[in-house]
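Example: Glycosyltransferase.
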Amino acid sequence: MRALHVITGLGVGGAEQQLRLLLRHLPADCDVVTLTNPGRVAEGLAADGVRVTHLGMAGNRDLGALPRLVRLIRAGGYDLVHTHLYRACLYGRIAARLAGVRAVVATEHSLGDTQMEGRPLTPGVRALYLAGERLGRTTVAVSATVAARLERWGVPPSRIVVVPNGVDLDRFRFDPGRRERTRRR
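Written out as C-alpha cells, the predicted fold is:
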C-alpha cells in the first residue's frame, strides 16, 4: 500500500513529532508532503528514509496549492491520503478526492475552543472544516477531548475514532549508566 501523509508544516511540534513516530512503525510505503515550513521534523523524516516534499504554500488562501497537490497525489499513485492539522485536512481531503483517491482519513491533533492553528475560530473556519470532513472516511481524534470538540462542531460520532498519541518508550528506557552520570554532576 502507498500512503501519502499531508501536514500543514513540519516545524517542531506535537503533531509533527507524532507523525514521525507513526511513520517509523508503519508497514506501508509512505511519503510526506508539507504545505509550509519544512522544518526540523522534515530533516528528521528524511534521515529516517521518508521522502518529504515541500509544496511551498504561501498562505491560507494560496489556492494554487490545490492543483499542485492534486498533481502530486496523482503522480504518486497513492492508495491512501492521511491528513494532519486543519489546513492540511482541508486542502488534502479536497485534493485527494479530485485525484481519485477514495481512502482519505485525517488525524485531528488539536482542536481549540477559540483558535485553529493560531487563528480565531470563526463560523467560516468551522464551515470549511465540516465541508472538507465530509470528503474523508474517518477522522482520528488523539484524545476524548478532541473527539468531543469534533462532535460539538457537528462531525457525526460514527465518523470519529479516538487513537491516543503514542509514546516512544525507547526514549524513556532506564539506563543505569546515565543515572550514574547524572548523580555525579
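The domain at 2-184 is CATH 3.40.50.2000 (Rossmann fold).
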